[in-house]
Amino acid sequence: MRMEYIGLSELSGSLIALQGVEDVAYDEMAEITLENGERRYGRVITVDGDKAILQVFEGTKGISLENARTHFTGKPMDIALSHEMLGRIFDGAGRPIDGLGEIYPEQRRNINGSAINPVSRQYPRSCIYTGISAIDGCSTLIRGQKLPIFSGAGMKHNELAAQIVRQARVGDQDGDFAIVFAAMGVKNDTAEFFRRNFEEAGALQRVVMFMNLASDPIIERILTPRCALTAAEYLAFDLGYHVLVIMTDMTSYCEAVREFSSSKGEIPSRKGFPSYLYSDLASLYERAGMIKGRPGSVTQVPVLTMPNDDITHPIPDLTGYITEGQIVLDRDMDQKGVYPPISILPSLSRLMKDGIGKGFTRDDHPDVSNQLFASYSKVQDARSLASVIGEDELSEIDKKYLEFGKAFEALFINQDMGDNRTIDQTLDLGWKLLSILPKSELDRMSSATIEAHYVEGAYKTILHPESAGGDGKLN
After folding, report:
1. How confident is the model at residue 461 (pLDDT cuts 50, 70, 90)?
2. In 100-237, which ranges are continuous DSSP H helix?
3. What pTM was estimated for this model as a whole?
């Protein structure tokens, strides 16, 4: 028997309240029928005795207090899951928007999911190659990891996210690879950029896209990452795919959570965000990983724009506590035309030490990564000294570090948006740049490693390829 409640006790913004309800649960879905027969959908966000408050996805415009009819479905929100999801585009609530019709569900699953039990977790091993030297070489993405990208307004994080989608591949071939891409609060032109970019690159057939536009309801923005992660978990742990989940922009998601919290009258915390923002973000990020005895893996790369480029803002601050490192984009490098403008020193991947080196990438990878990081940190010291006493007064070794810094930024960090470098190209380039420095300065690697790979003057083949008979391309 279908039971409906006629009329509402309150209506405010996107919220409606009903009095005298029975057997209604938190997070339960409801169907609201308007006078003209139009149907809208909402979710229970508060239950207090016989009073229930619902958030209406499509907004409350046109809803009558006297005549609206509400039917509770008795279950939380779920989405249809199928292998057919690959290559399809959905809105933030998991409804197809690509004009190809509904998918035939192999099963339906609650979007709220749960964090992976630490006892059942398998330690992440092996890496995911992005084709981007600054990531693959110095902050390697490990399969099953959560590695956010910290950016700023107006920087090229969208282009970087699109390049990762086009070029990403698992380090070994023991399973199929898929990407779940979730965009939250993006403009129409940005959404079209992603769709067209993936389509033209031929990557769309391995991508499941969830698109929430800036004009869409905020409640849908809160649902988007949950729908995306539910799809990723199905592809990974049921179908055996290695899934990379890219979510942009998590700042839009957090601002939707803040607006949602404010509409409920909750007491705000830092910067107006609710006090439960940490646990809310953790409920998303902790759905990444690998499960013992189950095929596949879920790897997360959330992208967030730091308000005012402030890395201590609650969103990047709380994200950094939960995730295993970060990739930080630098505005000064972006303004100098460096792409991707990745700042090497504050960027790190806490799990890369267990997924690179012998048996994973290349034996010398850990040494090259450590030495590049150490040498580039000394570049900053040399630049600071040069700004005080002048470059001409520097010692010869400090001048070498300045030369190394310029070459490192121009040739290693900087690369074309369509340049997909292999790990061998990245590490070989790192060795050529390190040859700018004398052997005595390579203090983060063994003498055996130096003797095996160091070639004095090798950097001349990339700085002046014409004099060395080269063609100027990486080889």
Report:
1. confident
2. 133-138, 157-167, 188-200, 218-233
3. 0.91
